[in-house]
Amino acid sequence: MTIQGERDTRTIEPVSRPEQRQAAAERRKAYPYKFPRDGRKMGGKFTVEENARRMLRWFYFERRLAHGLGSWTLTIPDFEVKIETGRHIFWHMDAARKLRDRLLEQETRKATIDNFHDAEIDAFMDELLSASDTPELLVGVHQVIGRALEVTYRHHIDDTCPVTDTPTIRVLRQILLDYEPMLAWAEQAVAAYVDGGVDEDRLERWRWHLARLLASIGDTTGAEARAERPAPLRIDSKPYDRGDVPCRDERFATFRNTGDYNVADGQPRYEAGSYEDARLRFVRTQRDEVDAIEAFGTFLWDIRFKDFQAEYDLARITWDEARHTEIGHRSMLAMGYDPFELPNRLTSSTCRGPMEPQYAMAEINLFGEVGVLKTINDLVDKAHDRNDALLTHISDFVRADERTHVRKGQHILHVMTDMGMQELEHRTRELFTECLVNLGVVKAGEGFNIITREELEHYVGE
Predict the structure, then answer these.
(1) Which residues of 84-116 are buried (b: 16+ CB within 10 A; e: fewer)?
(2) What pTM value is reported for the model?
(3) N or C: which end of the chain has fewer CB within 10 A?
(4) What value does the mean pLDDT take over residues 445-458?
(5) Rounded to 5, what percent of the chain is helix, strand, coil?
(6) What's the whole-number mean pLDDT along residues 409-415?
(7) How do residues 127-173 score in pLDDT, each as one tens digit?
(8) Residue 364 has what pLDDT?
(9) What is the overall mean pLDDT for the chain?
């Protein structure tokens, strides 16, 4: 008899009938195909409830990493690191999406997932984001929490049931496909900073500090023994706040007092209005979409926790803009330029950086990307007629991306604001007029009006 409240741990013996067992053996013996043997063993450490608790925590870490990296996109000066960060923003948000989908399968409500917050993780992330420079940021994001999550995912794969929990194992393995190159790149990048003169002792102190802070909140699972919280924390004296000034490394020559490459260059390289002029302008615009990495990454931070789908779309667009920047840079090389000989336009990011997200997003979506779509079809046709294989190839992919961005941008704008489109467009033009006047891009005179849609597309673009 089992006493109420106690678990019944008795073994229930099978009721096997000899004639049926013998018949099964004969059928199995006669079966001709010898398929690979499944060596997985039933059994694991986690219940559905514990699985979900851990995955919800990992979802939150991944979501916060995407937000946090987005908040740093303006501040990172180094070209290669800014591009790679644009990629990593999406990889972390895509990991969050995969974990979110699996949580829904494990009977966790969508509202519970999307509204989940953890004050200890928030404090850890804010401290990590309070890095004094990019090398410290990479140490925190990749060598501390990134590496810890990688180890945790591998351990969970080993410890969960390989038969009953196969979907979780598959999700974690998919996430690890992105983690492997991301963490390998980060190790090389930190080494490059050290080789270039960054104090390794300072980076190691920061790594140790963040590792202790992570241990003090039970590590990535929240189930580990808690260490003593380190003190002091940087956020105790100064809360984290994102930067709003676009930064470039010293290889770049930059300009922000015009949106016109020919004006910035001092002397046009090709005749204005010629195919050659349009071709080079298009390629330079792609390289200068480094400012779009900054824009969409910043938007991701500024609207965090408002709508998961909007966050996911922003992260994906940020990755696309990182690809566009690479396309422009590599196309310059293919055209015979040293990409750093061609000055980089900072006008867009200088205006958008401090701006409220709905107006900055309206500029890039309603004016910048739409402006690209107005002109790119003609450019593609001309490139094809001239058998310009390079421009035909890159513009075809860019056009497809921009169409997708315009479509996704409508939902993002509706998350950012409930303003009507006409009011939003007008206020955006007002704000950018003020910025362009302050930069000296346009002159304010008697009877001066806000710039038109066409002028905004020309001066700022994407």
Answers:
(1) bbbbbbbbbbbbbbbbbebbeebebeeeebbeb
(2) 0.93
(3) N
(4) 72
(5) 65, 0, 35
(6) 94
(7) 999 999 999 999 999 999 999 999 999 999 999 999 999 999 999 99
(8) 86
(9) 93
Type of residue found at 299: F
Cα–Cα distance measured from residue 166 to residue 125, given in angstroms and rounded to the nearest whole number: 31
Asked if residue 417 lies in contact with residue 358, where contact means CB atoms within 8 angstroms, the answer is: yes
Domain 48-237 has CATH 1.10.620.20: yes
Q: Find residue 345's DSSP bridge partners.
A: 255
Residues 79-84 have a mean pLDDT of 98
Give CA–CA dist 395/154, Å, rounded.
Answer: 40
Per the CB < 8 A criterion, the answer to whether 319 and 87 are in contact is yes
Structure tokens at 107: 């009977």
Average pLDDT over residues 267-271: 93
**How many angstroms separate the CA atoms of 51 and 49, rounded?**
5
> Which CATH code, of 1.20.1260, 3.40.50, 3.60.10, 1.25.40, is assigned to 254-459?
1.20.1260
Distances (CA, A) of 120 to 92, 123, 264, 375, 461: 19, 5, 48, 49, 41
Amino acid at 190: V
Q: Lowest mean pLDDT: which of 52-56, 217-221, 429-433?
A: 429-433
| Pairwise CA distance, residues 417 & 340, whole Å | 38
Confidence check: pLDDT of 438 > 90: no
Phi and psi based region of residue 305 (left: phi greater than 0; alpha: psi -120 to 50; beta: remaining): left
**Strand pairing category for 254-255 and 344-345:** parallel
Return the closest-CA partner of residue 87 out of 311, 319, 261, 310.
Answer: 319
The answer to whether 430 touches 228, Cβ cutoff 8 Å, is no
Say how many CA atoms lie within 13 Å of 242 toward its Cβ.
Answer: 25
Percent of the chain, pLDDT > 70? 96
Delimit the domains of the chain by residue range: 48-237, 254-459
